[in-house]
Design goal:
There is one protein chain. By secondary structure, this protein is α+β, with helices and mostly antiparallel strands. It is about 35% helix and about 25% strand. It has a 9-stranded mixed β-sheet. A hairpin with a 2-residue loop joins strand 9 and strand 10. It is globular and about 60 Å long.
């Protein structure tokens, strides 16, 4: 089989099985893992299974231990040597879940009621006691991790993404706040509305996706600074840098690519406004957002932030470009 044809097919299968059809640049000489194309274990499984089904072959097991060095070029070599002359048709449409909005978890009281109805009073009380003890423990000591991501606005192609028809995108203003009804979980509405007002007043840019008269997704960016309560860090920016934050999706539009399309729109607008790079911070356990940002949009992981909280007071250290630092400010 012609190597060029195999390479084109492999890239097509990668886009369909893992990148949700994203048009982001895919360099064949970059590693498959976090330091290259950004494929996590779940994404790699979907990609390899799609390749094996398409070409009717088995990819060597070393792929799982060597993904930080393994590239698309390596896979093409393997396939070109062993693929049949008449491979089957390409894999079916992807089922990647691009929902990256906020968790719609119910209140503790409503969950207690469910446990009570299904299991009785003793299990319900035990469940509530365990949850309460965990909450008290977390109020004394808690730790978590975030990844620092960057997107090269000057040299990287911003992907064209599929999303439901009828959507429009534009900058949102303070007058648009009433159009956010239903966008956030009821427990977050007061905080989100307050932040909406404060950010607009402080010069943040708000990028929004609209369906008729309602905002169904929005995200923010600033070229000044922002305080991250989760890490306790004040993010400060160098000239021609931007910091993106707080991507939201309406519950009825999750899984349809609306949030990612809004994010891509914000990157184009940020580039048009003169920024050369955009940074963002994502919690390490937010796997959907990490996967979407790195695999579909093309963000790169450039650092890691470790945070410890004693009595809810955060202290963070971070590692960027092999330099570890700590403090209250991080300059990007």
């Amino acid at each position: 089989m012609n190597r060029t044809a195999v390479e084109q097919e492999v890239v097509t299968i990668l886009r369909e099985s893992t990148l949700r059809g994203s048009s982001r640049e895919v360099a064949s000489d970059r590693p498959l893992g976090a330091l290259g194309l950004g494929l996590d274990s779940l994404a790699l499984v979907g990609f390899i299974v799609a390749l094996e089904n398409h070409y009717k072959l088995e990819i060597p097991e070393s792929i799982w231990t060597e993904r930080e060095q393994m590239t698309l070029d390596h896979l093409v070599e393997i396939i070109a040597e062993s693929a049949a002359d008449d491979p089957m048709s390409p894999p079916p449409d992807p089922t990647y879940d691009a929902s990256i909005g906020f968790d719609e978890s119910e209140s503790r009281l409503s969950r207690f009621a469910v446990v009570y109805r299904e299991h009785g009073v003793i299990p319900a009380i035990s469940w509530l006691t365990a949850k309460t003890a965990g909450m008290i423990g977390r109020s004394i000591y808690e730790s978590d991790r975030h990844y620092l991501l960057s997107f090269d606005l000057e040299h990287s192609e911003i992907p064209q993404l599929a999303f439901p028809g009828g959507l429009t995108f534009r900058h949102a203003t303070l007058d648009d706040l009433p159009s956010t009804d239903g966008l956030w979980h009821p427990s977050e509405v007061r905080t989100k509305r307050r932040l909406f007002r404060e950010r607009i007043q402080n010069g943040y840019q708000c990028y929004s996706a609209w369906s008729e008269a309602s905002i169904v997704s929005l995200c923010w960016s600033t070229d000044q600074e922002d305080y991250e309560p989760g890490t306790g860090l004040r993010v400060k920016l160098k000239p021609q840098s931007s910091y993106g934050l707080d991507l939201s999706e309406h519950p009825e539009f999750r899984g349809k690519g609306v949030g990612l399309a809004c994010l891509a729109y914000s990157l184009r607008e940020t580039r048009n406004e003169g920024a050369r790079v955009q940074y963002t911070i994502v919690q390490a356990d937010n796997r959907k957002m990490l996967s979407a940002a790195t695999q579909i949009i093309g963000f790169e992981k450039i650092g890691e932030i470790s945070t410890r909280r004693f009595c809810r007071r955060p202290h963070s250290t971070w590692l960027v470009k092999d330099q570890q630092r700590s403090g209250r400010e991080i300059i990007l």
